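call fold(seq) -> C-alpha cells
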Amino acid sequence: MTRLARLRQSLEELFPERHLYVRSGGEMRAFVLSPNKQMGGAAAIAAAALWMGVSTTALFIGAISPSSADQEAARVQAKYERWIADRQARLNSAVAQLNAADGSINGIAMEVEKRHTALALLLTDVKGAPGAAEALAPAINRALAAPNANPLRRVEMVRLSQERLLDAAETFAKGRAQRLRLAFRLAGLSPANYVRESGSLGGPLIEAKDPRALAAILDVDESFAERVQQAAKGLSEVRTLSAAAETLPFSRPTEGTPQTSGFGVRFDPFTGRPAFHSGLDFAGATMTPIQATGPGVVSFTGPRAGYGNAIEIDHGRGLKTRYAHLQSIGVRVGQKVAVGQRIGGMGSTGRSTGTHLHYEVWVNGRPQNPDRFVKAGRYVHENNS
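ret:
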C-alpha cells in the first residue's frame, strides 16, 4: 500500500491539476484538467504511437524480406539453372570428343560400349556373393538394350548405365557387407579377422593403390577408376564374408524341436542348486535326427563324463561344437561332415533327466552362447534369400 501511495504521489506530481481558460466572444470559460484526465490522455497518445510504430515496422519488414513463395521460386530457379548448366557441360564435352575424333560418332559409341562391357564383366566377376548378379544385372542390361539406336543416343545410354552400375554395385556391397559384419558381431566374432585372412581377392583391381594406374587400365578418368575400385573392394568383402559364414556353425542342430534350457546359470535338475549351463538344450523324441551346424571334421565320438554319448566337430579357426546325450552316433573320428548332415540320434545318455540334446559351441577353448550363433545364422540366411 505504501508503494502504491508513492506511485500515485509521483503520478500526481508529474500530472498536477491544470486550469485551462478559453476566451471566445467576450466570454471566458475555464476547464479543469485533473491528474486522471491527463494520465488517460497520455496513455491514449502512447498507445497510438506504439500501434503506429508496430504497423510501420511490419510493413517495412514485409517489404524487404521475401515471402516463402518467393524463396521457393528462387530455389526452383536455382535448381533448373544447375540442371541446364550440367546438361550444357555434358553437351560441350560430347562436342569436344566428336571434334577430336574427326566426327567419327560410331567409333566413339563402339569404344564407350566396349569399355562399359569390360567394366560390367569386371564388377560382376565376383563369384560367391549371394544376390550380386541379380542386383547388378538390370544396370548392365539397360546399357545394351538398344544396339541399333542412334549413335549419340547409344553413347548417352552407356554413360548413364555406367553410373547406374557403379551406384548399384556400391549400394549392394555396402548394404550386404554391413549385414554380414553385424551377423559376425552378433555371434561374438570379429569380421576383420575373416577378411584379413582371405588373402588377395579381385586381382590387380583390388591391389592397385594408384588410381592413375587403374584409370590407365580401364581407360577412364581417375575419379571413375576410384569408384570402380571401391565397388570391387566392397563386392570382394561380401564374397569373403559370405564364404566365411558358410564355414561357421550358424545352423540349428535339430529341426522342429523346442529349446528347453538356455546358456548360463540355472538350477541344476539333480542338486537343485545354481550351476553354470554351458550350452542349449533341445527336447524331442528318441532318435530325433541331430544335424551338424556347420562343415568340419569329427574330432571325438563316444562317451564323455557327464555328457553321455557325445560328438565333437572341429570347424577350424578355434571353433568346436559338441552334441551330447545321444542315443546313437552316425559318424567316426576324422570324417568330414557338411552343414545339415545327420550325425546321430537324440537320446538321454549320461547325466540326463530326459530325452534331449545338449548343444555347445566353443571358441579357442572357451564355451560360448550357442544361441548367438543360431541367431546370427538365421540373420545371414534371411538376408541371402
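Residues 197-202 have pLDDT under 50 and may be disordered.
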